[in-house]
Design goal:
Shape: elongated
Number of domains: 1
Distance between the termini: 67 Å
CATH architecture: Sandwich
CATH class: Mainly Beta
CATH topology: Immunoglobulin-like
Number of strands: 9
Strand order of the largest sheet: 5-4-8-9
CATH superfamily: Immunoglobulins
Number of helices: 2
Largest sheet: 4 strands, antiparallel
């Protein structure tokens, strides 16, 4: 019984000390810097979402995948993933491009959610995402702001 208690206490102390070894990182700074149309298929629309990722930490951040969820006007609009990998050096930044898909149902939901007086300018958005980096290295982020949707399908938002 004493041996079991000593073993349990040792495991608890070991796990607590392991948590202390995890890096204490400041959150990433994320900004949407562009949305460009991509070739679409059937009943979906595709865009390339460009995000600027700033690393305000003293250590580099290695990633091996990116996932995004875009909510516009309080409703889910687009999701996307990319298997790109790389590293963001300490105190530096990079622009990542992630293809996202918008289903016809999402477009319909957005259209029905707009009031008659609301325009396509300054729609509130929430971008949630993650940079995959292994079990303890995955970094989640959130960016909020306002989007102005283009009046044509050419150009960048």
């Amino acid at each position: 019984m004493r041996r079991l208690l000593a073993l349990s206490l040792s495991l608890l102390l070991l796990s607590l000390s392991a948590c202390a070894l995890l890096p204490n990182r400041d959150p990433l700074n994320i900004d949407v810097v562009g949305i460009e149309p991509l070739q679409s298929q059937d009943m979906e629309v595709r865009f390339a979402v460009k995000i600027r990722v700033q690393n305000p930490n003293e250590t580099a951040i290695n990633y091996n995948g990116v996932a995004l969820d875009l909510e516009v006007n309080g409703q889910p609009l687009a999701t996307g993933v990319s298997d790109q990998s790389g590293s963001i050096a300490r105190f530096s930044e990079t622009v990542l491009t992630v293809p996202v898909s918008v289903s016809a149902f999402s477009v319909l939901r957005q259209t029905l959610g707009l009031s008659k007086t609301q325009t396509l300018d300054n729609l509130p958005y929430v971008l949630r995402g993650k940079l995959a980096g292994g079990v303890f290295g995955t970094l989640r982020f959130v960016d909020t702001g306002k989007l102005s949707l283009p009046t044509s399908t050419t150009g960048t938002w």
